[in-house]
Amino acid sequence: MTPFTAAVESARPPVPADAEVTPEPRLLLADRVAQLYSQLPIGAAATLAIVVVSVYALRRSDQSWIVYGWSSVALAITAARVLLWWSYQRSARTVEQAQRWMRWLAIGAIANGLIWGLLASLFFELMTEQEYLFIVLVLGGVMVGGIAMYAASWSLFAAYGAPIVLPFTYGLATHDDVLVRGVAILIPLFYAVSVGVAYRLNQLYLGGFRTQRAYRQLNAEYAVLNQRLARQLQELAEARGQVETSGRKLALFVQRSPAAVFELDPQGRALNVNPAAEHLLGFAASELSGRLVAELLFAPEQAAKLGARWREMLRARQPIMPLRLGTRRRDGHEIVCEWSLTPLVNAGGRVISVIAQGRDITQQLEAERLKQEFTSTLSHELRTPLTAVLGALQLVNSGAVGSPDAEVLELTQIAERNGQRLLELINDVLDLEKVEAGKLPIELQAMPLEELLCESLTLNRAYGERFGVRFAMSDELPSASVHADRRRVLQVMTNLLSNAAKFSPEGATVEVTLHDRGSHVRVGVHDRGPGIPHAFRGRIFSRFAQADMSLTREKGGTGLGLAICKRLVELMGGRIGFSDRAGGGTTFWFELPKHAAAVP
Amino acid sequence: MSAPPLQRICYVEDDEDIQRIVRLSLERIGGMSVDIVADPAAAIERMIAFKPDLVVLDWMMPRIDGPTLCRRMREHGETRDLPVVFVTAKSSPRELEELRALGAAGTISKPFSPNELPERLRAIWRALAARGPAHS
Asked: Does ipTM top 0.90?
């Protein structure tokens, strides 16, 4: 059997009180040994007292040397037994050693019995009638005392009693008086009865031991259960505290949220409304509570649009992300709100309520519209005067209106070049605006990329020559069909090639490569320029990003090129990046998805 | 069958500077006869008198814009079939769609190069001729 603590730890159900508890024999023995040793000092003290009294009573006997001799032996044995008790107290008193201690106890019990047996055998022949009576009483006393002393082990009592009874009986049986001889017959009977009583006491002890064990075990289990219960109560209290805290936090968030927050039942009736919602829509919470919100806030056609999404959300039990709806305030004023709906689903998978969050985006939309309108108008209005400026300069520079003086020509060429830069900037700003407003038409179609790359090189050759830079395709190009917009790929290539030309030393070659990368194709443009400064790497694809503004003036460029490239490539489902090139320079690359039929 | 060469252009444009550039471009570089009209209200009258092969309209003009003028031309028997090319700074899909609906022969976006303008107009002219004899 495992120690009971471990048994309880393993969460076994508690043993019913009426179940029989069978203790392990070794444990029983150990308990018995402990019990017997605890009695030992009392026994020793009693022995000592009886010996002292006996010596005092018999000191005037004719055979006083026998009295002193006997008492010396008795004292020695008692001292040995006290020593035994002392050793036991100092030992570890383990279950394993109980057997050994029991053996010593048995030896001690027999030795103790021998003290009294010796008294009986030595004195019977020699004494007066009074002394004789004294010894008989002493022997009767020590027999009765032994029963109590060895209550934990009847066999030990039997071993103790036998050395007393045998010489005692013999002594009585050989007496002259017939009455005394009669007693001799009774002594073994008394002994047998005493052993029987001791045995009965033993059974009582055993029962007591079992009850105690069961009680202890129950107690221990009860203590463990109590501990567990206390722990669970504490955990419960903590959990409740946490729930309350997060509940308070949540309520605070909702209360202070700048967004309008509704809790709606699955039919769309308002259960709870936060102050921002009251403020945004002009309704008091009490006016909204229990009402069908859609009827109150949306025109029929908007409500129908919402209704379809609402049913879809209830079916899928998935949140609906921003839904733009014209929303009517209490005063009839129409605003545009972005609504998101989140169903709260219980453990059973049933939607118990829906959290609707609304944000007024009327101002934002208006600002976006104004910004776009402004940019677009500005750009268009700039084109008309630019047509005149560039047209006039081109006519002069081409010699269509006569040959101007060389110095004048130089100046008009500068003017034309800068007019072109202004135009590029306007075009780039417009492009970026369109991409960001989602208005740039992208027509994806399958096309062979290597031909497109060759075309882009041809188109940009003249530009490269201005910087003394040559563009070259790498020798082996895998044929790759991509899914892309032809015009936009050319635009990206023009940007990357013109950047590479601008930053390469004169006489350098810019290499263009094409690599198959599974589901994508990667185009690389490799230059031998100065590389990209570390401080600039994080924002290279941002608007108006140029590492060195003096280069803008020197070599042209708007600082929008890479920002546009990034957006265009992403619109076509690809990505763009750069890396340092071994041996100096930079590689700009972009990846485009392969045409589905071409993907193996 | 080769088309007759493009010779007479009527250009309706309110901006004086661009008028001068276009005239220089089409006359000097293109060797064409050009009638520049500054007032769109008088344009149809001038077209009837000048009898151009092709009409070029600026999109954005005060009072009467290019598309409006184009629609008016379609209502006049003598100008109804004249091919029209628009010059515009706009390029949104919606605007290009509007031009197609008006039956424009082509568009040229601002800014354009005066050195290339005659050739671009000839290219549109050739494409029209190839499409059918209606405008020849």
From this structure: no
